[in-house]
Write a structure and sequence with these properties.
By secondary structure, the chain is mainly beta. The chain has a 24-stranded antiparallel sheet that branches. It has a 5-stranded mixed sheet with strand order 7-13-14-11-12. It has 2 domains: 107 residues, Phage tail protein beta-alpha-beta fold (3-Layer(bab) Sandwich), CATH 3.55.50; 595 residues, TonB-dependent receptor, beta-barrel domain (Maltoporin, Chain A), CATH 2.40.170.20. Helix 2 packs antiparallel against helix 4. The chain is built from 7 helices and 47 strands. The chain is 7% helix and 55% strand.
Amino acid sequence: MSTQHILSHLSKALHLRQVFKPTLSAVALAAALPPAVQAQTQEWQLNIPAQPLSQALQELASKTGAQLLYNPSDVEGLRSTTLNGRYQLADATRTIIQGTGLSYGLNGDTVTLQPVTKSSLQLSVTEITSQKLGAVTEGTGSYTTGVTSTATKMNLSIRETPQSISVVTRQRMDDQDLTSITKVLEQTPGVTITRNSDERFNIYSRGSEITKYQYDGLTTHVENGTQNMTQNLADMSIYDRIEVVRGATGLMTGAGNVSGMVNMVRKKPTEIFQASLAGSVGRWDDYRGSVDMSGPLTNSGKLRARFVGAKQENDSFTDYRSQKRDVYYGVAEVDITNSTTLRFGIDYNKYDVNGGADSPLFYTTGQQTNLSRSTTVTSKHQNQKLETTNYFFNIDQALANDWRLVIAGGYMDVDRDISNYASMTKTGDLDIDRETGTFLASRIAKAVNPLSQKSAAVNLQGPFSLFGREHQAIVGYEFSRYKSHYEAYGQGRITTNLSSIHDVEMPNPDLHLIQDFYIIQQGYYGALRLNPIDKLHVILGVRASDYKYDSSFVLPTSNSYSSSAYKKTGEITPYAGLVYDLTPQQSVYFSYTDIFRPNNNTDINRKVIEPQVGSNYEIGWKGELYDGHLNANVALYRVSRDNATELAGYDSTNTAYYRAINGLETNGIDIEIAGEVLTGWNVSASYSHSRSEDANDTRKTSEHPLDTVKFWNTYKFSGEWKNLTIGGGARWQSKTSTTPFTWAGVYYQATQDDFVVVDAMARYKFNQHLSASINANNIFDKKYYSAIDNLNVGYYGAPRNLTLGVRYDF
C-alpha cells in the first residue's frame, strides 16, 4: 500500500489487521467524523455517562474527532465507565474501557481496541500504549491516582490542584496490610497521631487537628469533646483509596480546619464480575478474614452491586487487651437512563474492645517511667462497644453541553456503650509510685453515647467558553447536622495499683453526668477554573457559611448546669489558586485561603472559645511523570491564626478543658513522591517539617515531631520470578515531648527521642487466583511511644510481629 495513498476507513482497518495479526472478522468504525490531525497531548472536556460500550465509543469518537477501530463481537455486552472531566485521548480511552478486558493501541488520532487475552497482539513501532490512571485505584497496581476532586470538587489531576494532596491507594493498603484508618494515616506524608485515651486518636497536620472526614466527598465532623470519634476507627476493607488534603479547606468544608481533610472513598460496583476471599493470622492471636464480591445483576449491566464483609479478632501486646471488628458493606448502582446513575448503600462497622493500652509516663518523683510494653493502668474488665451505620446515596445526572449535576446525602448513626471503666485518672495525682505501683484511678460504672450526623450536598459543574477559551465552573450547597448525647453513671475515684486495678469495684450506677453537643452548618460555594493563557490556570472561589453550635453540661448529683453557644451567619471564606505549567508534566502553584473555624472546645468555665481566624499560604512545585504513573511535589506553607486552642487539663469530672492561643504561626515544608519510578517498582517517600510557635516564639504542639521521614517501596519481579513481589520501608520521626507542668511542687515532662521503625513484606502469586503474603513489622523490635498524651499517659508502638495472609481471586 502506497504511503502517499489516502487510506479510506476500510483500507486502514485492513492495514491494522496485518499489524495485529489475529484476524478481525468484522471491523467496526465508530468515528462518524473524518480523520483529524490531533496532538496526543490535546485535551477535551468530556461528560459521557456509563452505557453500552459501543454507544460510548461512538460518542467519544464524535466529541474528539478520533477514529476507533474494533471488532463488534469484542465489545458486545460490555459497558463503559463514566467519563467526566478533562482528558487526553489516551486517558479517555483507558478510562472508558476500564474493567472490560480490552486494551488499546494509539497511533495519532486512531485508536484500535483488542482483547488483552489475545496473546499474539503486537504493536508497530509507530504506535504507543498508554495506561494513564483515572480516579479509581483498585486493580491498577499503582501507588498514585490520576484524578482527584477532594480539594476543589473538580476532577483534576494532583498536578493541576494548587494544594498538597496525598493518596493511599488500594494497592498500598494491600501491600502493607493497612487494615485501619489510623494505620493508613500513620503512613501518610505530613500526618501525625496522638491519643487522649485508648480509642480516641487525634489526627494532626500542619500544627492542628483534622476534624473533617469525608465519605465519597460528603463531609462529616469529628468532635473530640464528645469522645465519640468513630471515623478514626474505620476499617479499610470497604475503601478504594484514602485522599488527604493538607492545608485549609474552607472552600469545600466551610468552617474548615487549617490542618486539612481526610476523604475516604468507598469501593464501587464493577462493570464485570469479580470476587475475592482473604484471610490472615498474626502475632497475639490476630485472625482476620474478608470477602469481596462485585458485578452486574442484570444482563444489560444497568444494575450493579457490591458486597464486602470482614471480621477480625485479636489480642494485644498489652496485657488483658483484646479487640473484635465486624464490617459489612453493600452498595448498588443503577443506570436509570443513559444520563442518570443512582448509587445507594449501607456500611456497618462494629468495634468491641476489652481492656486498655494506657501506660503511665511518670513516677511520683516526676521521673519518666520505662515500663514493659505490656503494662497497663486500665482494668481488664473495661469494655467499649461502638456500632456505626452509614446510609448514603448519590445521584449523578449528565446534562447538556457536558455539564453535570450531583446530589448526595448520608446519615450516620453511632451507638457507643462503655462499662466497668477503671483507669489512671488524668486529673489530681498524675503519677504512679515506683515501689508499690499505686496510683489514683477514675471509675465509671457505665456510659452511653449515641451520636448521629446528617449530611447533604448538591453541586453543578461544567465547562463554558469565554474569549475563545474553555473554562470550568462549579456551584454547590452543603448541609450538615451533628448531634451527640453522653450519659455517665456511677463516677468516682479510688486508689489502686497495677494488680488490684482489675478487681476495682464499680460505684453505684447513679446518673452522674449528661453532656450534649449540637452543631449545624450550611454553606453555598462557587468556584471558577479559568485558563486565560495556554499555561496559566486560575482557580477563584468563595463560600458563604452559616454555623450554629450549642453544648450543655449537667451534673444531676450537684444540680450543676452550664451551657455554651455560638452562632454565625454569612461568614465569607475566599479561596484563590494559581497553577502555571512549566512543561506538560511540571507546574508551579500558589494558593491562599482565609481561615474561619468555630471552636467547639470550651475553657475551664465551660464557655466556648472564640472562632479561629487567620490565613493560609502555600507555594509549590508538582510533577506528573511517566504518563501520570509517578507524582512528585514540594510545598512550602505558612499558617497564621488567632484563637487556636490547646488542651489545658481535665476538671474534677475528668472532662477536658482548653485555652486559646493568639498569634500562632505554623511554617513548614512537605516533599513527596508516589507512584511507579520504574516498571514494577512502586515507591512512596516523603519528608515533612512543621513548626508552630506563638506570638512569644514559644514552640507549641511539642507532642508532635518537627520532622518526619516516611518511605515504603515494593518491587514486582519479571521473567522467571514474575510472580514474586518484595517490599520494605521505614518511618523516622524526630524527638517529641509533653508540655511541662508542675503538680504539688513536682516538675513533670516526658520525652520520646527520635526513632525509626522498619517494616518489610513479600508476596508470591502461585497462579492467577491464589497468592500468599507475609508482612514483618518493626523488624528491629524498637521500643517507642507511638503517642504521648499531654498530661500523664503514653501509648507504646507494637513490638516486632509477623502477619501471614492468603488471598484467592475468582
